[in-house]
């Protein structure tokens, strides 16, 4: 797709951002299947042609929204754990808390990432997108923990996938809970206990670091 220069480029960027913002709001509040492209272009104040030009189809637009929300969750976790820089294990545990807190506090994120995501993309594509967004960071973190002698030297990629699977399932339980914030404390306690089981004996400590 050609990206025009100058004022046309600014218009291009504005149109794309407007469509994504409108879709994010509608997908988050109504769900993917209950939201039509007519609703999205009306809210964004653009033409249907603009939507298809930028995203190809409704699923392509949903992928852009999915990536945006996944990045928002990542940014939330990074900002919440910045004071713990250099304390790798403590920061891992804090990242788990931050990720799940984000899910518990944002119903739109629950719907987009965990409920509609797998249904819209299918499990294989959803897992692929999920891995693009998060797998590399988990593998890097595991490498650091192994190098520091904090956890046992286990195969990195399978362990990273297991970390993500535990977080996803925990997030799903929050998404379907009657009161996600109330359920959050119990979910975090259980995950911290599971994660702490990876500590080598010389590094064993309470999960809170």
What does this structure look like?
This protein has 209 residues and is an all-alpha fold. Helices cover 77% and strands 0% of the residues. The chain has 9 helices and no strands. The protein has helices at 6-30, 37-44, 48-55, 58-81, 88-105, 107-121, 123-147, 156-175, 180-196. Helix 4 (58-81) packs across helix 5 (88-105), helix 4 packs across helix 6 and helix 4 packs parallel to helix 7. The chain is elongated and about 60 Å long. 28% of the residues are buried.
Highlighted features:
single chain; 209 residues; mainly alpha; 9 helices; 77% helix; 0% strand; elongated
Itemize the secondary structure elements and their pairings:
Elements: H1 6-30, H2 37-44, H3 48-55, H4 58-81, H5 88-105, H6 107-121, H7 123-147, H8 156-175, H9 180-196
Helix pairs in contact: 1-2, 1-4, 1-6, 3-4, 4-5, 4-6, 4-7, 5-8, 5-9, 6-7, 6-8, 7-8, 8-9
């Amino acid at each position: 797709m050609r990206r025009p220069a100058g004022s046309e480029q600014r218009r291009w960027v504005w149109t794309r951002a407007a469509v994504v913002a409108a879709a994010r709001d509608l997908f988050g509040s109504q769900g993917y299947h209950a939201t039509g492209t007519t609703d999205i272009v009306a809210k964004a104040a653009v033409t249907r042609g603009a939507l298809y030009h930028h995203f190809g189809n409704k699923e392509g637009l949903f992928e852009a929204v999915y990536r945006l929300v996944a990045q928002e969750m990542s940014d939330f976790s990074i900002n919440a754990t910045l004071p713990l820089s250099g304390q790798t294990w403590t920061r891992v545990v804090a990242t788990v808390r931050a990720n799940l807190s984000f899910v518990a506090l944002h119903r739109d994120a629950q719907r987009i990432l965990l409920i509609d995501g797998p249904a819209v993309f299918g499990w294989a594509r959803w897992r692929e997108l999920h891995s693009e967004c998060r797998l590399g960071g988990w593998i890097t973190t595991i490498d650091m923990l192994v190098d520091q002698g904090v956890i046992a030297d286990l195969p990195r990629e399978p362990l990273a996938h297991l970390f993500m699977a535990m977080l996803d399932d925990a997030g799903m339980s929050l998404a379907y809970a009657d009161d996600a914030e109330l359920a959050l404390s119990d979910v975090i306690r259980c995950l911290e206990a599971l994660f702490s089981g990876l500590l080598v004996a010389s590094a064993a400590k309470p999960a809170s670091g």
